[in-house]
Amino acid sequence: MKGRNLKVMTFLMSVIIGLLVVGNININNDTKYVQLSTKEYQQAYAERNQLLSTISKLKHSNDEIKNKINNYTYGGKQDEKILEDMKQEIDYNKMSIGFAAVKGPGVKILLSDGVDTLTEKPKDDTLLYVKTLHDNDMMKLINELKLAGAQAIAINGQRVLPNSEILCGWAFLNINGVKTPGPFTVDAIGDKDVLCSVLERNDSYVKTLRNRDISVSIHKEGELHINGYSGDESFNNLK
């Protein structure tokens, strides 16, 4: 009886030891501990930081793409408003510098020399010079119009730009490279009452021209049409 109990006890102990051995093997297989050197640890730490940085950049890029999609989806009307504002600004700038046709109230000035033909010219050359309209006379008149608030000016249909030249060429004036003969018509858009008042002052340049026997007539106009400059619009030396 005792021998039989001893066998049973031995069997149970064997089973228990076997289970412990198997459990210990599984634990060792499931948990692995690796010891890293200092260099390996630093390399692993750098790789970790690089991965975190890449993830952050991808997240930022994803947010930007989402914003673009939202703008494309919901920003159509806003984009149309921006484009319309830009177009209006371009049109205004073209009018201001003289590249677009304009209309508005102003004054029309008619100018002609004191003598119209060579047969009627004075015998004195000095008197002939005094009675003739010159390029500096036209420039002074244009400057006076600008000071009076003229917003657009044309001479015989040639739009006066900020860089327009006005040069004498015998009986002609060269304006924007175009020869135009006298008599001359100057159209100026602005407040017609103010323009006329400035031009008719006793100390105006118009008064000086009249004193030299040059014919000057000024007419108020309810609406003038001035064409835009149609020549070369390139500005190669500007940046």
TrEMBL record:
Domain of life: Bacteria
UniProt xrefs under InterPro entries: DUF881 (IPR010273)
Family of the protein in this entry: Belongs to the UPF0749 family.
Protein's UniProt name: DUF881 domain-containing protein
